[in-house]
What does this fold into?
Amino acid sequence: MADALAKGKKPEAEDGGPTGGEDAFVRGAFKSFDWLQKNLRVVLLGVAGIALITVGVLYYVNFQATVRNQAAGDLAQLRMAAVSPEAVIPDLESYIGRYDGTPAADEARVLLARVYLDAGQPAEAIRVADGVAEGADRPLGFAARSMLAAAQESSGDAAAALATWQDLGRNARFPFQRRQAQASVARLHVAAGRVAEAATIYTAIADEAEEEGDLSEAGVYRIRLGELSVPEGS
It folds into this structure.
């Protein structure tokens, strides 16, 4: 029977006649063997294609891991070597271009935005901080948007800064982060003469901090709230 299958013929009985007792398994085996003979080239090409895809995926994953590790190491060296804004700014800009798309590149953006802000270049700080794609509920996203709001304030765009702080006050991951952002919203309201709105915010975040058992933080906001009622110039 095996020889018959190998030659593409249906198996026959020992006396040369047809195998009338051929069962479903044997018929299925014959059909499968016949199909394989006719489509062997297609099967081999398919197997080779799957192997190439698997190798490609593994290579890409390993390559990306190597790039991330290299990016983290290079950023650590930049942090240690930083001596002045004039020296570190071009290095960070080059680093971001080289490792764009990695988590370390967004870390470098936050650092660069800080350097630009300290150097009195808020427009550049806004450009860089706005390039961080992480949401406000992620650590880098919160840091980048906080830096963005600070740069917007420094550039004189209070309306944009207010909107950024309000977004953080709604979407930051942790309650204390949301309270920090809301406190900045209150501060901007005070600067714009909207004292009643600021008082409402300070009261709410102080109450929330007390409910969470953070009496020290609540005390800070109570002090700010009390300062609102102090006559100007006293």
Notes: Residues 57-64 have pLDDT under 50 and may be disordered.
